[in-house]
UniProtKB/TrEMBL annotation:
This is DNA-binding response regulator. SMART domains: HTH_LUXR, REC. PROSITE patterns: HTH_LUXR_1, HTH_LUXR_2, RESPONSE_REGULATORY. Keywords: DNA-binding, Phosphoprotein, Transcription, Transcription regulation. It comes from the Bacteria. The keyword Transcription applies.
């Protein structure tokens, strides 16, 4: 994985925590968004842990640039956004741009390492505070869906719409399989096709789309 933060002490601390885990390896670090994108292109890490606020190119810029270069998404790199600020616009923009999760810097070691493992496995993860706000309808209640958002649903089958809706409800693949009474393999296929058709680069991004359009 790649650790991206403009503060050397934080980079070193996060790297030490993650490298101490037997199943996690820090392949490199970067101090701003531009370095992060170049390092990702070179190292192709499974997960990037990226601070949002950095000088020159920030984490949101890096996230968008990774998506533009085709480095982000299922089977490629996943991005976890890390910040001290629990601000709505950061959460919305990060998730809408394809972040796999959003963690506050006061998260516990267990939350941090668990989030990295979840992102590496292709799952979404959010801090509990962010999850609660989304469940309470923060995203779905902002405004009517745009024409661009609705257009992303155009090619979905009814079953793929069902899967998107359940992803928006925060269900795992196993829970979706139980709800729809189908095999786990079938759900994985539906999720992959749904992500491809909607252009979503992560389950979290799909969840935002679902809450904006299907709620």
């Amino acid at each position: 994985m790649l650790v991206v933060d403009d503060e050397p002490i934080i980079r070193a601390g996060l790297s030490a925590i993650l490298d101490s885990q037997a199943d996690l390896t820090v392949a490199g670090t970067a101090e701003d968004g531009e370095e992060a994108v170049e390092a990702c292109a070179r190292l192709r890490p499974d997960v990037l842990l990226v601070d949002i606020r950095m000088p020159r190119r920030n984490g949101l810029w890096a996230l968008a640039e990774l998506g533009r270069r085709g480095l982000l998404g299922p089977g490629r790199s996943q991005v976890l956004m890390l910040t001290t600020f629990d601000l709505d616009e950061y959460v919305d923009e990060a998730l809408a741009a394809g972040a796999a999760g959003f963690l506050l810097k006061n998260s516990s070691y267990e939350e941090l390492t668990g989030a990295v493992r979840a992102a590496a496995a292709g799952h979404s993860t959010l801090s509990p505070a962010v999850t609660r706000r989304i469940i309470e309808g923060h995203l779905s209640g902002r405004q009517r869906p745009s024409d661009q958002e609705l257009a992303r649903l155009r090619d979905l089958t009814e079953r793929e719409r069902d899967v998107l809706r359940l992803v928006g409800d925060g269900l795992s693949n196993a829970e979706i399989a139980d709800r729809l009474v189908v095999s786990l393999h079938t759900v994985k296929t539906h999720v992959s096709r749904m992500l491809a058709k909607t252009g979503c680069q992560s389950r979290a991004q799909a969840a935002v789309l679902a809450r904006n359009t299907l709620s």
